[in-house]
Sequence to fold (195 residues):
Amino acid sequence: MGQTYERIEGRIREFIEQQPVFFTATAPLSGDGHVNLSPKGRSGTLVVVDATTLAYIDFGGSGAETIAHVREEGNGRITLMWCAFAGPPKVLRVHGRGEAIFRDDPRWSDWIGHFEEVDGPSARAIIVVRAVRISDACGFAVPFMDYREERTQHAEHFGRKTDEEFAAYCEKKEHVAMSLDGLPALPLPLPARTD
Fold:
């Protein structure tokens, strides 16, 4: 039987920090807009900031639907989900309100400090999630899957780019400045970093 929690602490925090992958889900306010669901990985790119706040680095390499949805006026809805693919079965969801912190935001240097070991030129935003509801479910139908290792291609590919090259990459990428539904997403030209 699932439970709800007031805070991300103890075994809930440990569970989050042990998972090698999580998923984000967002949607525009428009009923006919595209729902977005994205897998997120790379060790160290998600942190539990405090008992009701999480943050993760939004890297380049794909569209910017999550950014667009959390930026949309009156929206900001986001759900993060983790599944136990090993150990005792569990599915954990954090429903919350998201905010995109961009590279030219005066708060950028404080937020990026949470990610020193994984920071790089492809960090285009930090998504901050303030929990509204924290709940788990049994996870009995989630299969066992063996975790082998991290893929290194993303970090290696973007690690070879200068900040200027990454900015040029973002300019050419479809659905980075505007979402699939025409909502403003990543500000372009890509802002210079404040740190």
Remarks:
- The beta strands are 4-5, 22-26, 36-40, 46-50, 53-59, 77-83, 91-102, 123-137.
